[in-house]
Amino acid sequence: MNDLKRILLAEDDQNDIELTLTALEDLNIANKIDVVTDGEEALDYLFKRAKYKDRGSGNPVVVLLDLKMPKIDGLEVLQQIRESVELCHIPVVVLTSSKMESDLITSYDLGVNAYVVKPVEFEKFIKAVKELGSFWAILNEPPPDK
Fold first, then answer.
1. Which of 3, 4, 121, 130 is 20 to 30 A from 29 (CA-CA)?
2. Phi–psi pair at 73, nearest 5 degrees
3. Residue 10: which of 82, 64, 91, 71 has the closest Cα?
4. CA–CA dist 102, 84 (Å, integer)
5. Has this prediction a pTM greater than 0.85?
6. What are the boundaries of each domain within the chain?
């Protein structure tokens, strides 16, 4: 298993990417944060396909997943993660602007570990991401790679 704890951030909004990276880097958790900007790229990363076929061993300790992404939406990404024997135990946190009840229910039906609505205010957004990073990358014990 790769000793470097990796976080996969699947997010298409550049401002949210920068804010999330800033918040996680402020924690000094020494994780590698890989960023993908659409659902298709997220699946390519996770399944080690296309440009990610040589990304190395080990799964991320957590996937921070936006729902409203181009090509393939976050719900489809979550479904494919949960249907995969190799990936099904990876913690997935939906980090989205969607407050739609149907997105919330569907996410939990598909097996999401947590559903967080992105705060609009800068400080609250940073605080929320830091708390997520602290828990999922430091406190939580990730499942072993299969």
1. 121
2. -75, 165
3. 64
4. 24
5. yes
6. 6-138
DSSP conformational letter for 41: H
CATH architecture under which domain 6-138 falls:
3-Layer(aba) Sandwich (3.40)
DSSP for residue 142: P
Burial label for 20, CB within 10 Å (0-12, 13-18, 19+), is: buried
- In the sheet with 6-10, reading across from the earlier edge strand, the strands are 32-36, 6-10, 62-65, 92-96, 114-117
Distances (CA, A) of 10 to 1, 21, 146: 23, 12, 22
pLDDT (tens digit, 0 to 9) for every residue of the chain, 146 residues total?
445 678 999 999 999 999 899 888 887 765 788 999 999 999 999 999 999 999 888 899 899 999 999 999 999 999 999 999 999 999 999 999 889 999 999 999 999 999 999 877 888 888 888 888 888 777 777 777 65
Cβ neighbours, 10 Å, residue 113: 15
CA dist., res. 130 & res. 127, Å (int):
5
